[in-house]
What does this fold into?
Amino acid sequence: MTISRRKVLGHGAGLGAVVVAGPLVVSSVAPAYAGAVEDIIAEFTGGTEPGSGKVTLGAPEIAENGNTVPIKVSVESAMSADDYAAEVLIIATGNPQPKVAILGFSPMSGSADASTRIRLAKTQDLIAIAKMSDGSFYRDTKTVKVTIGGCGG
Amino acid sequence: MSKDVKPRVKVPKKAAAGDVITIKTLISHKMETGLRKDKKTGDMIPRKIINAFKAEFNGETVFSAKLEPSISANPYIQFTTKVMESGDFNFTWTDDDGSEYKATKSISIG
It folds into this structure.
């Protein structure tokens, strides 16, 4: 990787605001590790095609600092003993290692909501895939712009 | 076992039976990805992250997470749980080197 995280830390804080105000150069959001991403999804779903809806992935549209980007997942579910969201897989398609985390819920979770902070190497798509207790899968995608190129890097 | 690793957890002290409470956890840890080079020697810095997290209430797992290097340094995890009775939460973070970091919090219902 040529883009150093240190650089982002050093420049990001001060220049972030300027970068956002200026014209945004939207870099390609094509996943650089598409093959790996598909493999990770297939491993998680066992080949089942995820439906849309139910799962919501929350992330900032623009992240000034790719070192710590807050994200939130929530799944619509009754969270009862026989109908609950079991797991949520989070993937950052543009990271060298796209798999970010697998969150495991239980009927005792009350609601399938969780937040964490993740690293993003560059502007990219995030994917959340929820696995329900009945074996169905749901998917949500969100693009996050990482203003990493703002320092000429 | 690193000395600088310190878990912090925020759990409400009291709740009503059936409440869904929010738990916030943070642990100080570098989360070394294994992809960085040592600037002086040029050698790769070996991976060392928290790879798993688990929250138990009265012995039963309520929330767990498998973590990868894409999780930020000082991993922060927030989740919810439904409490029906008073009891103790046990939180466990597992390091790549096999060591476990633990925290305990109690909650009373009433």
In short: The longest strand of chain A covers residues 137-146. The first helix of chain A runs from residue 5 to 21.
